[in-house]
């Protein structure tokens, strides 16, 4: 039977790095060696105290080494976290300034478009008050353009070089 459900995806278990596994194995081996030598002291002879002392010293030195290693790792992690936080803060600052500049560009484009529209309306005479517009007489059509249009004076107006005397 085919179902539409997807199988639940589980996150893989976090495995330790090979170095951590190796350190744990070394620690377990030293600990096991100490336990075996203590059993040798109790079961065989007191001569095992010498080897127990040596391996106990090694185990103690290894524990000190592991502790110093853990402290150094924590210090490095704190430094990396601090560095990552600093970098994130700088990136956020850059994003904010980019957003500010983009908003300023959009505002400038909006103002330019409004200015162009105002110039266009003025050129077409659409910005005049309706009371200033000519009134249609006897059903004549009404022109909402300025008198004279956009290209200078009408031919009939006369002027320099006109065919008709003024």
In short:
By secondary structure, the protein is mainly alpha-helical. It has helices at 18-43, 48-124.
Structure explained in plain terms:
It contains two helices and no strands. The protein is 62% helix and 0% strand. The chain has helices at residues 18-43, 48-124. The radius of gyration is 46 Å and the shape is rod-shaped. The chain has a domain at 18-127. With 166 residues, it is mainly α. The protein starts with 17 loop residues before the first helix and ends in a 42-residue tail after the last helix.
What is the topological layout?
Blueprint: H1 18-43, H2 48-124
Biggest beta-sheet profile:
none
Helix count from the secondary structure assignment: 2
| N-C termini distance | 101 Å
Bulk shape: rod-shaped
Order of SSEs? HH
Structural class: mainly alpha
Q: What low-confidence regions span 5 or more consecutive residues with pLDDT below 50? A: none
Average pLDDT number:
84
Percentage beta strand:
under 5%
Radius of gyration: 46 Å
Helix content: 55-70%
- The tally of strands reads 0
Which structural traits does this protein have?
166 residues, mainly alpha, rod-shaped
């Amino acid at each position: 039977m085919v179902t539409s459900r997807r199988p639940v995806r589980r996150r893989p278990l976090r495995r330790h790095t090979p170095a951590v596994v190796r350190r744990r194995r070394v620690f377990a081996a030293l600990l096991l060696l100490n336990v075996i030598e203590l059993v040798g002291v109790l079961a065989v002879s007191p001569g095992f105290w010498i080897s127990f002392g040596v391996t106990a010293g090694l185990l103690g030195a290894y524990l000190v080494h592991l502790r110093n290693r853990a402290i150094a790792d924590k210090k490095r992690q704190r430094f990396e976290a601090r560095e990552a936080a600093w970098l994130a803060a700088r990136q956020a600052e850059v994003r904010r300034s980019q957003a500010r500049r983009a908003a300023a560009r959009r505002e400038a484009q909006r103002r330019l478009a409004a200015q162009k529209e105002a110039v266009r309306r003025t050129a077409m005479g659409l910005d005049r008050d309706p009371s200033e517009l000519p009134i249609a007489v006897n059903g004549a059509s009404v022109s909402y353009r300025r008198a004279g249009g956009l290209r200078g004076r009408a031919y009939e107006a006369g002027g320099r070089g006109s065919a008709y005397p003024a």
